[in-house]
Design brief:
By secondary structure, the protein is α/β, with parallel strands linked by helices. The protein has one domain (2-110): Glycoside hydrolase family 3 C-terminal domain (Rossmann fold). 35% of the residues lie in helices and 15% in strands. Keywords: Hydrolase. InterPro entries: Glyco_hydro_3_C_sf, NagZ_Beta-hexosaminidase. Belongs to the glycosyl hydrolase 3 family.
């Protein structure tokens, strides 16, 4: 689980972990640093699925680099965009994408349940 906690009142990682107890949460800066991108990229191959929270991605920004670096090591990437529905335009290789339009806890919890196939 990778996310920028600075903007969220409630954590996307917490919402996913409440649905799937063995979730490991990794928080990064916004924008993520090159070091963080490298560390997360290395870790990505160790997991079955990597869930990434994004916040208004732009072309070639650090969030885009982070998601692409993860995807290069693990094709099972799920992006949860927490604001802009246009993040997917900059992440064309991402196989699973959902947008919450906000980062309130109910929105994050609903997204977590949706990606994990749980009833709402």
């Amino acid at each position: 689980m990778v996310e920028d906690k600075r903007y969220a009142t409630f954590s996307l990682g917490k919402a996913v972990k409440e649905c799937y107890e063995s979730t490991e949460i990794v928080e990064v800066s916004n924008p993520p640093t090159e070091k963080e991108i490298s560390e997360v990229q290395t870790m990505a191959g160790e997991y079955d699925i990597v869930v990434v929270g994004t916040l208004t991605v732009q072309a070639n920004d650090a969030q885009t680099k982070l998601v692409n670096a993860i995807y290069n090591h693990n094709k099972n990437v799920i992006v949860i965009a927490t604001r802009s529905p246009y993040d997917i335009a900059y992440l064309p290789d991402v196989p699973v994408y959902i947008n919450t339009y906000e980062f309130t806890y109910p929105a994050l919890e609903t997204a977590a349940k949706a990606i994990l196939g749980m009833s709402m």
